[in-house]
UniProtKB/TrEMBL annotation:
<dbReference type="InterPro" id="IPR005946">
    <property type="entry name" value="Rib-P_diPkinase"/>
</dbReference>
<feature type="domain" description="Ribose-phosphate pyrophosphokinase N-terminal">
    <location>
        <begin position="1"/>
        <end position="117"/>
    </location>
</feature>
<keyword id="KW-0479">Metal-binding</keyword>
<keyword id="KW-0545">Nucleotide biosynthesis</keyword>
<dbReference type="Pfam" id="PF13793">
    <property type="entry name" value="Pribosyltran_N"/>
</dbReference>
<keyword id="KW-0067">ATP-binding</keyword>
<dbReference type="GO" id="GO:0005524">
    <property type="term" value="F:ATP binding"/>
</dbReference>
<dbReference type="Pfam" id="PF14572">
    <property type="entry name" value="Pribosyl_synth"/>
</dbReference>
<dbReference type="GO" id="GO:0006015">
    <property type="term" value="P:5-phosphoribose 1-diphosphate biosynthetic process"/>
</dbReference>
<keyword id="KW-0808">Transferase</keyword>
<dbReference type="GO" id="GO:0000287">
    <property type="term" value="F:magnesium ion binding"/>
</dbReference>
<keyword id="KW-0547">Nucleotide-binding</keyword>
<protein>
    <recommendedName>
        <fullName>ribose-phosphate diphosphokinase</fullName>
        <ecNumber>2.7.6.1</ecNumber>
    </recommendedName>
</protein>
<keyword id="KW-0418">Kinase</keyword>
<dbReference type="GO" id="GO:0005737">
    <property type="term" value="C:cytoplasm"/>
</dbReference>
<dbReference type="InterPro" id="IPR000836">
    <property type="entry name" value="PRTase_dom"/>
</dbReference>
<keyword id="KW-0460">Magnesium</keyword>
Length: 291
């Protein structure tokens, strides 16, 4: 068994290798002057069971192409089996044809990964679970829920006065599953997306008055969803607002928005490389042992 990493999340790859008690395999990625990438393994892969770890975080296209090249190079180096470990699967939000003349990019990415030669895929908390079905090769779809539940069970001491909040309809199943695990009630926000970076959160279903609200979402990207939800919860009488995410992507104005928002703490796992140390409000939870 050999574990290699692309450039997107070396810290998580090292943690996974450490948990397995093996060194991270040696490979090189370079960029040519013409912007093309070059990938090479620095050790033999012949007959090996190869795991390639790559989160599809920004710059997404670079990380995707690097992953495809690593899979392709492993196959043509006579690896026995190649598993693409994709802790964060970008494009998962493009999972259906919800407008005319668009690409279902989540399926296209699945096609590319399989065409490159992946025999198996390991991923975590896909935005839509049905993306799993875009693959013909076996997919292990892990959940960060146990890690998040354990953390908040301790962090919110007893949880007697807490409520789990889904910040939009898409998160209801996720929130209800976490709420069941923690034996907490649930509330739900009616969100409307105005643009890529702006959302508006209108109504709230459920009681948050005088309670600690724990917002649960698959990812925080620009933090528009999170901040709108936090403000609405405070308007409805929530005493304190916490938030839990599997994927802390934190793009554009995210950190600044979180800093200004009425939020005590945001916890996200390390599926995405940690670029948010600048904020005291942001905590990182490890999924290395789970992988
Ligand atoms: C959307 O449906 C997802 O579940 C997240 O709510 C969304 O990706 C968060 O994006 P942002 O942080 O940019 O509002």
């Amino acid at each position: 068994l050999m574990v290699f990493s692309g450039q997107s999340n070396l810290a998580l790859a090292r943690e996974i290798a450490d948990n397995l008690g093996i060194p991270l395999g040696k490979s090189t990625t370079q960029r040519f002057a013409n912007d093309c990438l070059f990938v090479r393994y620095e050790q033999s892969l012949r007959e090996g069971d190869i795991f390639i770890i790559q989160s599809l975080t920004p710059p997404v296209q670079d990380h995707l192409v690097e992953l495809l090249m690593m899979i392709d190079a492993a196959k043509s180096s006579s690896a026995a089996r190649v598993t693409a470990v994709i802790p964060y699967y970008a494009y998962a939000r493009s999972d259906k044809k919800d407008a005319p003349r668009i690409s279902i990019a989540a399926r296209l990415v699945a096609d590319l990964i399989q065409t490159a030669g992946a025999d198996r895929v390991l991923t975590m908390t896909l935005h839509s679970a049905q993306v799993h079905g875009f693959f013909k090769v076996p997919v292990d779809h892990l959940s960060a829920e146990p890690v998040i539940a354990n953390y908040f069970a301790t962090r919110l001491e007893g949880l007697e006065n807490a409520v789990v909040v889904a910040p939009d309809a898409g998160d209801l199943k996720r929130a209800s599953s976490l709420a069941r695990r923690l034996a907490l009630p649930i509330a739900f926000i009616d969100k409307q997306r105005l643009s890529d970076t702006e959302v508006t959160s209108r109504g709230l279903v459920g009681d948050v008055q005088g309670k600690t609200a724990l917002i649960v979402d698959d990812e925080v990207s620009t933090a528009g969803t999170l901040v709108q939800a936090a403000e609405l919860l405070v308007q409805h009488g929530a005493e304190a607002v916490y938030a839990a995410f599997t994927h802390g992507v934190y793009v554009g104005p995210a950190i600044e928005r979180i800093e200004r928002a009425p939020i005590v703490e945001v916890a996200a796992t390390n599926t995405c490389a940690y670029r948010a140390q600048v904020s005291q409000k942001i905590k990182q939870l490890s999924v290395g042992p789970l992988f």
